[in-house]
Amino acid sequence: MRRSGFLIFSACVGNLLEWYDFAVYALFAPYIAASIFRATDDFSRLAQSLLVFGLGAVARPLGALLIGLYADRRGRGPALLLTCLLMGAGTGMIVLDPPYAAAGRMSIVILCAARILQGLSAGGEIGGAAAFLAEQARPGRRGLSASFLQATMGLSNMLGAAVAATLTTFLDHDQMAHWGWRVPFCIGLAIVPVGLVLRRAAPAAPPLSVPRQDRAHHHGLAVLRALAGRHRGALAAAFGLSVLWAAAPYALVIFFPLYAQTALGASPHASYVAYLLGNVALVLGALAAGRLADRLGARRVLVAGAILLAVLPAAMMGVLGHRHDPATMAAVAAGLCGLVALFVGAAPLGIAGLFPAPVRATGIALSYNAATSVFGGFAPAVLAALGTGIHGIAAPALYVAAAAIPALLGLAAPAFAGAGLEIPMGHAAESIPAHTPGDERMAMTTQRRHGA
């Protein structure tokens, strides 16, 4: 049990760092805009800041391709180490980025380069981590194990919100715009060495042999040919699922504080507290969804989550139009996060079950990050441009309802209709974890440590 817990924690620590950096950028976007960008009005600066936030999403598919292939060829462990290093480099560049008043346009260039590095890291993180968590768990607990990937997103958001609430309590607006917004990124930078140590120390999951007919998939372009050929239906279904997997957290979770401030007139501090409390529901709900996926099957949980996300957020956010006191904001934030958790908690198992082990990390990474690059990273910028809503319906609710359509179509595809998701992944020949050189080296190191 302790070994399994350590494996889960070491795999998720990079995801925690990724979502923490993404969350604090969105939370502090107005302050970053005031420091790094030059414009005639606050809205123009905020729009530029959010567009640079979305720039990281553009790099995600490239990171998915390069690091996904690396994970399928060299092992999940080395790939997870690489993503941690890239995220740390990008975060360090943000910490050291000089203000516009000191460096002019170069400060914007540095911020863009940092977001690209973070995007490359984030693109490769999801595939390797989701594949690793699903493969290392014993049958009957794969959904719960994989759900920790999304639970750490909630923990990251809680950490970011706690830092934001603390800073806005003790610093005024000018101090926040001048230097206070850099503090959360310094904290994120401190997480990097912890992640590296944990991932280097983590034992690999027991390496098993890959079926002979699938060994050719380990050779670079052969992975892409296999995905575009015999696994094309799975790739399309995974992309449809990933549209909602990407859109819902960004629109209903990450964007919530900005929505509360711009549409409702809430103070930054009050919106951060509501965001913090809401993410408690995200953590608990994601773990509960993973357990439900083990008992009922990932597809059933995903269908229920997609339908509820299409219908309920409009009514829940409509309440805020009439009452937006701190208690109501916290309750609505918790409800929205709970809905998101039901879907995203089961999504890692659902998408991992679509692909055989030799192409799993690449398949997950490509489908998820292709969807995120369009529907996720730029969601805050699109929602800020849309304003409060359309015909009385909150813009984030409309955005997520539209994203639920391709998700439901993907879940109805033949790739999801088979038994692959209902049968524990370890019982299928195609689901056996790849016996890669990187994993073998990690396993041999572990054996030497324990005197085997």
UniProtKB/TrEMBL annotation:
The keyword Thylakoid does not apply. Its main location: membrane. PROSITE patterns: MFS, SUGAR_TRANSPORT_2. The chain crosses the membrane at residues 50-71, 78-96, 108-134, 146-167, 179-198, 234-260, 272-289, 301-321, 327-354, 366-387, 393-417. SUPFAM superfamilies: MFS general substrate transporter. The keyword Transport applies. Signal peptide: none annotated. It is a multi-pass membrane protein. It is found in: Cell membrane. Residues 7-418 form the Major facilitator superfamily (MFS) profile domain. Keywords: Cell membrane, Membrane, Symport, Transmembrane, Transmembrane helix, Transport. It comes from the Bacteria. Residues 430-452 are annotated as: Disordered. Belongs to the major facilitator superfamily. Metabolite:H+ Symporter (MHS) family (TC 2.A.1.6) family. This is MFS transporter. It comes from Nguyenibacter vanlangensis.
